[in-house]
Amino acid sequence: MPAKGYISNSVIRRLPRYYRFLGELQKEGTLKISSAELSARMKLTASQIRQDLNCYGGFGQQGYGYNVDVLRREIGEIIGVKKKIKTILIGAGNLGKAITSYFDFPKYGCELIGIFDVDPQLEGAEIASLSVCSMTKLTAFCGEKKPEIAVLCIPKDSAPAVCEILVESGVKAFLNFSHYDINLHFEGIITENVHMGDSLLTLAYNVNNKDK
After folding, report:
1. Long-range contact list for 165-168, CB < 8 A, 24+ apart?
2. In contact, 83 and 109? CB cutoff 8 Å
3. Can you tell me whether residue 43 is helix, strand or coil?
4. How far apart are CA 175 and CA 56, in angstroms?
5. What is this structure's pTM?
6. Which whole number is the average pLDDT over 52-69?
């Protein structure tokens, strides 16, 4: 269902949570759920849920609630999980290998089509049915295959030059583990920054201040 005007980033960031929670409800065999019941599970207010979904036209029926299968399918279409955006991963070290081997890209609307690394000893190594390619082949690969998303699992110092190649090659979005501030240098590029250290520090702070 088309969005009605401007959608705030906070609403967009909640869509994957709705999708995930509704998937859990499907596994439990739940057929329908009210906004109040969903709010209790997600720790959001029922009003917030209704407001979020109304941004896309609304899906519930008064006195009935939400059909779980229909709502999850509609949210999946809004997110675009069936489009399978072409994705590449840069950096086949321990982190890159872990992500490639254990993360189900198609489940989340992406198709991993290439893995690249600067280490010549890794060239040709197979990870999750894909062969690691040399970074020297990156530009040609992007020109032919036209990936739109890149997952960066490389050191911060290596990221500027790699990002420049990727942006010039048409990559539109990054899942960024490098700690390099992509948006500061490349305007209009969509970026999700993953700072695991920041998350651990936040947990540490909350544990240390829980009873204060």
Report:
1. 165/138, 165/139, 166/90, 166/138, 166/142
2. yes
3. coil
4. 26
5. 0.88
6. 82
